Amino acid sequence: MPSIIGLGINGIEGQWVMLECNRNGFAISTGSACDVKYNKTANALKALSVTAEQGKEFFRISLGTHTTEEDIISLSHFLIKMTKDFKGGKVSAKTENDSR
């Protein structure tokens, strides 16, 4: 679905990210929607070659018709700040094409 973004922050459990986001007014979810009731790596994530460790880091952001550009920017800034705070100010971007 083009309105759902799946992400993971290396070294930070998705459950913790979700709780911090929710506590700060951002409603996000963890895991795959089709396997949310199970405490295991979702079949959808396995099909994408996501490891069990990466599966624990996974969270998803769903965008709706009322989501604004400002909402997305605010969440982005929050995720960056939260990650820096968690990792002691060190944050680097990594994509699936990176060899790092």
Structure description:
The protein has 100 residues and is of the alpha+beta class. The chain has one domain: Aspartate Aminotransferase, domain 1 (Alpha-Beta Complex). It contains four helices and three strands. A three-stranded antiparallel sheet has the order 1-3-2. It is globular and about 35 Å long. The N and C termini lie far apart (28 Å). 12% of the residues are buried. Keywords: Aminotransferase, Transferase.
Features:
100 residues; alpha+beta; Aspartate Aminotransferase, domain 1; three-stranded antiparallel beta sheet; 4 helices; 39% helix; 12% strand; globular
Our count of domains comes out at: 1
What kind of oligomer do you see?
single chain
CATH class category name: Alpha Beta
- Average the pLDDT over all residues and give the rounded result: 81
**CATH architectural category:** Alpha-Beta Complex
CATH domain topology = Aspartate Aminotransferase, domain 1
Largest beta sheet: what is the strand line-up? 1-3-2
CATH homologous superfamily descriptor: Aspartate Aminotransferase, domain 1
Estimated radius of gyration: 14 Å
**Beta strands, count:** 3
Q: How much helix, percentage-wise, in residues? A: 25-40%
Task: Give the DSSP E fraction (strand runs of 2 or more residues).
Answer: 5-15%
Give the CA-CA distance, first to last residue: 28 Å
Unreliable spans: none
Give, in order, the helices and strands: EHEHHEH
